[in-house]
Specification:
alpha+beta; 11 helices; eight-stranded parallel β-barrel; nine-stranded antiparallel sheet; globular
Amino acid sequence: MSVTAEDVEAGLQILLELELAPSGLLRARAELTNTAEEPYRLQELGILLPLPSQAREILDFAGHWGGERAPQRTPLPVGVHLREGRKGRTGADAAYVLSAGEPGFGFARGEVWGFHVGFSGNHRTWAERLSNGHQVLGGSELLLPGEVVLGAGESYSSPWIYGVWGNGLDEQAARFHEWLRARPQHPSRPRPVTLNVWEAVYFDHRLDRLTELADHAAKVGVERYVLDDGWFGSRRDDTSGLGDWVVSDQVWPDGLEPLIDHVRSLGMEFGLWFEPEMVNPDSDVARAHPEWIMGPAGRLPVEARRQQVLNLGMPGAYEHVRNQMVALLERYPIAYIKWDHNRDLTEAGSRPDGRPGVHAQTLAAYRLMAELKELFPGLEIESCSSGGARVDLGVLEHTDRVWTSDCIDPLERQRMHRWTQQLITPELMGSHIASLRSHTTGRMHSLHFRAGTAIWGHLGIEWDLTRATPEENRELGDWVAFYKVHRRLLHGGRMVRMDSFDPALHIHGVVNSNATEALFAVVRTAVSDVEPLGRFRLRGLDLTSSYRLRDVTPGPDPQGFRRPAWWPGSEGTVLPGHVLEQAGVFVPGLLPDQMRILHLETGSSSQD
């Protein structure tokens, strides 16, 4: 529905659009039009949703590079709980979903109301409780001074905001997930197992090494091969070449054809890394067009990661990037773009006057993504931004997955996966198996724990497989095969996260629509104060049905694994749904950073 209101004396008209999805998700946006003759300087156009008085506890998220979406709770005080993003991108520390609910709400119970601003630029999200007892959740784009000035007859549209209610956080998340999956552009084909070469080779692009890596990838079942940073211009490290989207004849004298032809001959798709919104000062484009670099009048902003921002709000800069990307997509069979964005937009002015440009830059990035997809049907795009610093429903209007974090340490990913899925579905969440030693934390984990963590999203690999042992490659192949067998359930089922009775134990899973099939992970992440831990229960099952449980964890049993008496053997164990959900069963003996995966199935099970 839409509502129009007008203030004739002020010369302003507003159109409010409201959409209520079948899932129960509400989204809204507003369009403001200047009907006067004089220019109108817009400071903010926010949308508020009423919040019931019993919502007295706030949940939102903190975070940083390599540690995105860390939950934090606080009472809702009298006054404003305000979260601002001024980085020119969503931010690793974004509020993400701001929820307010009954004190103590968890995954399974407690009324909770959530709010999300679907925008990838500057934004504000807040919860406010007034002295008169009224409460609201609100959000808006954060406009910098003078960023939007409406001339006579001109309009500004706010981002879409999203409001969801749930009895527990799982029900809240399910409304987001159902809405996402109902979109016409939502990925419908099985999510291909992806190998990204970044942590395997970094900038060391040699055809023999990369083709050998492709051979190993194909043998373990990889379906998409992605060449990361370093293939273009003078980009031999991170100091130069960014913005020159031309294949380097120094590294690739015969072009990318030899690698792409080899990858495709092995039955894999080919993907390529870009960072379209960024530029190194040491690049051909920056030397030719220094005015295209965002900054205040008369100087450059402080560099970050030895790069600056290319102002796509300027037509010339936009056409430069667009034309170079189109030329590559026309020449090569590129099925997938990893679209990176590795620095904040600080002092983000448009030259020569330094007028703020974040709003225009964000919309230009959206426009370029949409244009490429229109020109190349079937092209998929991943949103990556220093890891997970651009994860929102605005960028997901134009992309097919997001990179959760540059940290692939599975212990850190256990938390990040759990909370990233408060908003997005697992099939949109890039989730890779890393090498033995994490490149960001230095910790070492077994392949069992690395793979058992990664299969719960859009599975990928970020590991130099040429250095893996034959035993590791065989076990990795088993995990990839497991993912392929179960990905329809993993990416179509309803997420279940059990409220933990012990901080050392995390239990989560997916259940199909008619509760005839499910997968659950029983994960041990730490040493507990007690041993054994006791009984755990599952949720989301049909209480009147009986389920055959099988331990389907690929690979050899981890060290120290001890089966309780009830644990399923090769034929499985049959237990009633009401026993699993109401009484529970004993936790198996697991050491920290170990898990078991259980498959549950009724006699009438069928895939969704």
